[in-house]
Amino acid sequence: MQRLCNAWSPRLSTAPSQWIRSYAQAADGVTKPSTRVIASIILQRSPVILPKLTPMERYYYAYKDEIDRREAAPFPTEFNFKKGTLGERDWKLREEAHKELQKQGWQALLERDPIVSGSPWPVTVAELQSGGEANLAQANATAIPTKADTAALAPRETEADCAKDSKSLERALAQTLYLLVKKPRDQHTWQFPQGGVEGDELLHEAAYRELREECGDEMNVWIMGRGPVGHYSYDYPAEHAQHIKAAQAKVFFVKGFIYAGQARVDNEEVVDFAWVTKDEISTYVDPQYWEAVKDLL
């Protein structure tokens, strides 16, 4: 097995370079108008938090929670709580309130479930201290937790969301963000970081090099695999084709993930950048470019 791996590894490492150079010449050896091979990276930041539950999902999880509760074995209070303690009173009051809700039917029970309502079960600190029985009407009116009773949850919308700061990675936490860069030209300004493949570079090597050249080396990036996830071609304008000695470009996209850091553009090849969601990409790039990349995201 070791001999087989050693025999194949040189061929695997040199195949991509031969494959790339094949675009400049036809299979029969006749030279045709050259094609410039470009490597581009679709750099993304994965979601940080779970997406917000839809009403249907909230009711589903509340229903499942109630089914699990009813099918569970009886809870041994004498084993888990010392008699007369606040913990025992807390549990008893919650059970009494829950039984009151069960009498009103599934609809009332599910609507009052913490998963659906966002509030805890109807038990207050005052009821715990007095030791009185839970009253459903009073509990529903006083069930909103205070800062003294519960820990405050961080908001789903951050300051970057409120400020609409497209350069911040602390926005759209429940969605994937993609890095777009702006080129200093009049047309086709926004795109993913990209650049021409040099020498015997592999596609993922060229894409990573261009990312560092255009956006700096302050990002901790992982390239997902060595092969491209897609490509598209376009023709150069006549004056530009003469300058770079290529009639068309073929752009190969590789995917990458950012784990830390931030982009720092060089203000030469790239003058601006933005972290955008999939829905926002179409508002930045040209329609032709969007049609080419939308299914790769």
From TrEMBL:
Stretches assigned to the Nudix hydrolase domain: 145-297
Keyword rRNA-binding: no
Gene3D superfamilies: Nucleoside Triphosphate Pyrophosphohydrolase
PROSITE patterns: NUDIX, NUDIX_BOX
Principal location: mitochondrion
Origin organism lineage: Eukaryota, Fungi, Fungi incertae sedis, Zoopagomycota, Kickxellomycotina
Gene Ontology MF terms: hydrolase activity; structural constituent of ribosome
Coiled coil: none
Subcellular location: Mitochondrion
Signal peptide: none
Keywords: Hydrolase, Mitochondrion, Ribonucleoprotein, Ribosomal protein, Transit peptide
Pfam families: MRP-L46, NUDIX
Protein name: Large ribosomal subunit protein mL46
Family as reported in the entry's similarity comment: Belongs to the mitochondrion-specific ribosomal protein mL46 family.
One GO location term (cellular component): mitochondrial large ribosomal subunit
